[in-house]
Design brief:
Two copies of one chain form a homodimer.
Chain A (H helix, E strand, L loop, with lengths): L4 E7 L3 E8 L5 E8 L25 H19 L6 E8 L4 E4 L29 H13 L17 H11 L1 H6 L2 E4 H11 L11 E3 H7 L11 H7 L6 H5 L3 E3 L4 E4 L2 H7 L6 E3 L2 E2 H8 L7 E6 L3 E7 L10 E4 L7 E7 L3 H10 L4 H10 L8 E3 L16 E6 L5 H25 L6 E5 L2 H4 L1 H11 L3 E4 L4 H14 L1 H4 L4 H8 L2 E7 L3 H17 L5 H13 L1
Parallel strand pairs in A: 1-4, 4-11, 7-8, 12-18, 18-19
Antiparallel strand pairs in A: 1-2, 2-3, 5-6, 9-10, 12-13, 13-15, 14-15, 16-17, 19-20
Chain lengths: 549, 549
């Protein structure tokens, strides 16, 4: 049988990437990336040149289509494959990146009426304009003791979907009124593939991902979106936002959203009718992309920040989790997302702020014993995500003496992120969610063996490494394969496809060292003492933030 | 009337300095310093070449006499004065620098029998060989609830007199047995001047300073040295150490210990019969040297570490003070010594560890508002002296973010030392010891105006600066003038002499800035919370030290 391929379309913050992946073994036959022409729009609006407020981060929807087409052409050309051998397409996208559109999917920012209104443009995930709105959404939810709040560790994030809609209602009411649909960019992109491109689409053919909706829009398979009463309590004009502006059928990633439309097929130089998977958030795509199909395996995406994902048969509300969502990562499981807001960027802070060298620090840090010669760090340089979910916390070093060396601070930072990870694992387990295996992916594992060894020692667990350094885009391709269906692919079960197309490295894994593990058993409680949610350190951090910001 | 002069003999860690000072106005007519030939002996013994343990720091007694003679000749030559116009001599010395001698004042280390035994040599103040002995001295004192312990804030220091004697008993019993007198180097030096040099001296003519004895040897004007019962409980062979090995008459600094002997006059090229003051600890000499004669004025000697001295009419036991000693600094007052173990050397740590520039940091730090942009430091880089008296505490930074700059750490360190000082002042005041005025001396005040302004803002007090940058040696000269007596000098009262010979700067003082002061009123409580003696941070620091040392 000739080779068949799935495309993984990976929409990042700066560019779109296309992977052509052999569904038999996950081999990458071709790949290409294309930067967005407008990149991140955070200075001036491209149409009017208007200066944007400092919290703004927008994107241009046409960039997504243009970069996709260019990258797809190049990847397929590199792969030298017959376009007819592509049997599925999967899409991952940053989230919550969202936009207001008309019922035919035309972005409002591309209409003459709204092209000069910043809030008519897609808001990138890191757009931070909705501070007051987030506060109100949380306050009212707590007041009303909304049950769904527990699924998000008790706090709705500034970057999420409802805060971003409410911001538009508050600051650009005409945009809000004209928006017939608010949706995630990933959902919009899939809609374009199966029904478009715009303005051909019909709202009736819109599929939304349970991943994006579940993690970012407080949607739940059993109870749907937040209630009208709750939304009305926030703002009477917000009461009917769900009924009025959130049409669409919800499906899990890996389920077919539709098949490639004729126009979109022409755009991508592919045949029409190829199954397209419902979209997934980029980080979550790394779970199948790391070759993980089974529950209770934590996939740790380690980078500037870290995101730890887990599928489980059990639904529990753990403190400070970013979310627990049924069918949120893979169909049939409750998907847990937890996170550490600052990991690689804390190391980079140390290196850059003091003009040091990663290599030298790493070499020196490796010679130190667990405990970094008496220095203990707190890794909250960008606040604490899981489990405390508190952006007002900050980083710290304790145990400094006149002979403390930079390498001690560096190792202490690594150890602190390891302690923070162990805390997350314990919080899940104490909530009744088992965590049994650990797979690392992302930028850090292959770059920083010291970090990996410390993580294994602190967790007292073996850690394996995702084989592919493209696990996010590879995960999207796997979802494309799943969307094609078992009759086409021959994979009877989801897990068969995942294990065939993605694996962990066999040549390298990290196992706990007995002596280090014992040392960390003694130091970890000190980290927990220092990091106590209502402890002196955390309270001082919060008050400092209040007094000096 | 022709000019008359007092000599200030200042024995530091590395050299002896001689000041020739006009007693009319404190003008320095001449000065010279001479390094000790053997410096600090911490590697090998000069006689045998034997390698010394890492905790050892010894000196050579002949160095003191040789450097004194050379510096005195040069200073008098520079001053171009008639040797007959010298009317008094004062001596300050590092402490507790101590040595075992024979009854005729001959140092044991200069005898053939003991020249090769390290513990027969003078132990410099920073000799740290007596760790176990200090522990035992404290343990037994606490067990027996010795009343005098409260005068030292509850803890006897590793560098003090009894630990150093007990170390000799434990580790060099033959030296201990042969020692007819143990004494402070300052006392030995004065003894040489008035009765020597050795081997001419008689134990009957030995004067000991109430300053050295009071601060370093648990001596008290009313109760004397610790009791025989206590010393026996430490070690039966230590029971009679006071009766057997601590002869001498106790006198306050500024009181005459005797007059210059013929041989010593010849050594210094001076006339015999010049009154010589009882010695004083170098730091304490800075009180008269800063022009401070009155009670309730804190003299802050700000340097690598800081020492804050205060005379008071009131005797109270404040927590963590280095000591309260009657006649300890000036006759007629209770002298308080308090300290911060790490000040300038914490700033130097930051600068040197990260290869930064003091000038750049200082310039950037000056632009920051109180609170260092949200960074709070703990200044215990060398443990906490007053008020917690705990060497196992350590430094910390809290409030770090990904945008924290080195200048924020620098300013936070300065602010932390200011908060630490305010804590000391409050501890004294809460114990019933008033502190009304503040005079700064030492190396930092003229070098670091930002620090001075922050201290004024945090204390909410005006701070004046000692006029002389030689306040320690100047203080010794003032004591020499006092020892000469009012009939010779014309100064009816001690305060007249002090105010005539030393002053504070009139051109410069630091006053609290209203806005900064208000900001610090809010931040200081956060420092206190973080620094709570039994708080999480302090406990974590202690456990970290235990686990990793």
């Amino acid at each position: 049988m000739s080779h068949r391929y799935s495309l993984g379309l990976d929409f990042g913050t700066e560019s779109a990437r296309v992977l052509v992946v052999d569904i038999k073994d996950g081999r990458i036959a071709g790949q290409a990336a294309q930067a967005y022409a407008h990149g991140v729009i955070d200075q001036t609006l491209p149409t009017s040149g208007e200066k944007l407020p400092p919290d703004y981060a927008l994107q241009h929807p046409q960039d997504w289509l243009d970069s996709l087409a260019a990258a797809a052409h190049a990847a397929i050309r590199e792969a030298r494959i017959d376009a007819n051998s592509v049997i599925g397409i999967g899409v991952d996208f940053t989230s919550c990146t969202m936009l207001p559109v008309k019922a035919d999917s035309t972005p409002l920012c591309l209409t003459p009426e709204f092209k000069n209104v910043p809030l008519a443009w897609p808001k990138l995930w890191k757009h931070h304009g909705a501070k007051a709105e987030t506060q109100r959404i949380n306050d009212i939810a707590r007041e009303r003791k909304e049950k769904w709040l527990a699924r998000y560790g008790g706090t709705i994030g500034l970057e999420w979907f409802f805060p971003k809609m409410l911001e538009t209602l508050a600051h650009a009411p005409s945009v809000y009124a004209a928006a017939e649909v608010f949706l995630e960019a990933g959902d919009w992109l899939v809609w374009q593939l199966v029904d478009g491109p715009f303005p051909r689409c019909a709202a009736g053919n819109l599929t939304r991902s349970t991943c994006q909706a579940g993690y970012k829009a407080m949607w739940n398979a059993k109870t749907g979106y937040p209630s009208r009463d709750y939304l009305k309590a926030i703002n009477p004009r917000f009461a009917d936002v769900v009924a009025d502006k959130l049409p669409g059928m919800l499906r899990s990633p890996g389920r077919q959203a539709g098949v490639l439309s004729e126009s979109s097929a022409a755009l991508l130089h592919l045949r029409p009718g190829i199954p397209v998977s419902t979209t997934i958030i980029d980080a979550h795509s790394g779970v199948p992309g790391a070759g993980v199909a089974s529950p209770s395996t934590m996939v740790m995406v380690l980078g500037t920040s870290s995101c730890h994902m887990l599928n489980s048969r059990i639904e529990q509300f753990a403190p400070g989790i970013a979310g627990v969502v049924e069918d949120g990562i893979l169909p049939g499981y409750f998907g847990y997302e937890t996170g550490q807001a600052s990991v690689g960027d804390a190391f980079a802070w140390l290196v850059q702020t003091f003009g040091l060298s990663h290599e030298t620090l790493s070499r020196e840090a490796e010679k130190l014993a667990p405990g970094s010669g008496g220095v203990l760090a707190i890794d909250w340089f960008n606040g604490c995500r899981t489990p405390l979910m508190d952006a007002n916390l900050s980083g710290a070093f304790v145990g400094l003496t006149l002979s403390t060396k930079p390498a001690q601070l560096y190792r202490a930072l690594i150890e602190a992120t390891a302690f923070g990870l162990r805390w997350i694992v314990e919080a899940l387990q104490e909530s009744g969610v088992p965590v049994r295996r650990f797979v690392a992916s992302g930028g850090l594992p292959n770059k920083n063996p010291l970090l990996m060894q410390i993580y294994a020692d602190v967790l007292n667990e073996r850690i394996t490494l995702a084989e592919s350094d493209q696990s996010v885009a590879l995960g999207a391709a796997i979802l494309g394969c799943l969307a094609a269906g078992s009759e086409v692919t021959g994979y009877a079960h989801m897990s068969q496809a995942i294990h065939a197309m993605a694996r962990q490295r066999e040549d390298l894994s990290y196992r706990p060292d007995l002596r280090s593990r014992k040392a960390y058993e003694q130091i970890y409680p000190l980290y927990r003492t220092l990091c106590h949610c209502d402890g002196a350190t955390a309270n001082v951090m919060r008050q400092l933030r209040e007094l000096t910001s």
